[in-house]
Amino acid sequence: MSVKHVGVALLGLGVVGGGTYEILRDKREMILKNDDVDVEIKAVLDRNEARIAELGIDKSIVARDIDEIVNNPDIQIVAEFFGGVEPARNFLLKALYAGKSIVTANKEMFSKCWQELEQAAEAGGGGLYFEASCVGGVPVIRALTDSMQANRITSLKGIVNGTTNYILTRMSDEGVDYASCLKEAQRLGYAEANPSADVDGFDSAYKNSILSSLAYRRRVPVDKIIREGISDISVKDIAYGKELGYTIKLLAISGQRDGRIEARVHPAFLPNSHPLAFVKGSFNALFLSGDSVDDVMFYGRGAGALPTGSAIVSDIVFCARNEEHRRYPFENIKDVDENAFLNDFSTMYYVRFDVKTGDGTLSKIAGVLSKNKISIKSVLQKADDELVLITHEVRESVMRKALCEAEQLDGVDKVAALIRVEE
Ligand code: HSE
User: Which pLDDT value is given to residue 335?
Assistant: First the structure.
């Protein structure tokens, strides 16, 4: 192979931008030796002078603005680390129309703007590379695009957010409260600038949109994904779930049934024996089922400077070696068919009721559930004023209707917690 020389610009030097800078600085020789690609950082764009000094970046490569990068013929690849939609979208569209390829970790911008980025890439002849957008350093995008050709993928289930997995793991294993865990996740550089993106499930929904679109070869827009976050999850329910043999996780789930797609993000209990239940801390995993390969699981660090930087650098090298860039024609469908998505689904449920007294109330609740054809799998009663049930599988709409009826019963105060259970 002949050596490919490639000039790169880094937009933003935050956690991942900085990690990428360090990898490219320290491993340039190794990458050249192993891959015959010589990656030179030609420009960086960041107004934070202290950060530039901290990383030891030569001032001569600090660009004044995006136009300086877009107009530099020695730059072929623009890697973006700003996060959020703007100005990332605007800068990357400029770069693509100027014929450059882009590499991004920005799941929000990519999931919302994939279509117009694709059009700009086609117009300019460059490529879109987004391995780092989902599951950090784990090569799930490449697995979906380059290793699943023999499969009709039937379902996908993943822990795709490092911050929430870190929080839930510490709440579960150490009983640490939610707020302290979140603070620590921010300190460790896992959380988004606005951590609501993590804890309210937006980040997982962006990633679910990208992964599901690739898995089912059709666009799964973010607004078609049912989304709930983890802020209502209590240490108490985690402990009760544990007693019943379950581990709590924030899951990104999707499936394809009869030509329709169901996609959701929410906290769920998994049996302790499920492979995803063993994924702890900032680690992520993606569990795919295909009709040829059967089940396959990808595991690794889902967030952090070097793991995400690893995926960015892999995209830069991959892009540099590609004679032709991949296109995703299914993404260019402008209007998605509203009927292509299911907004009701079936699962099992963990329900905690606040009750006036356990005596007799359980049989009344069981009566209401039974009337709605919902059967109970297990019961836990730890105190006189609460009852915990696990149900068998039922449609969400039916479950919610039954719970409204149960809340009207004498002896029932309220449904204090409702958590889905995935088996
Ligand atoms: N905030 C994200 C997470 C960063 O915690 O997973 C990686 O996408």
Answer: 63
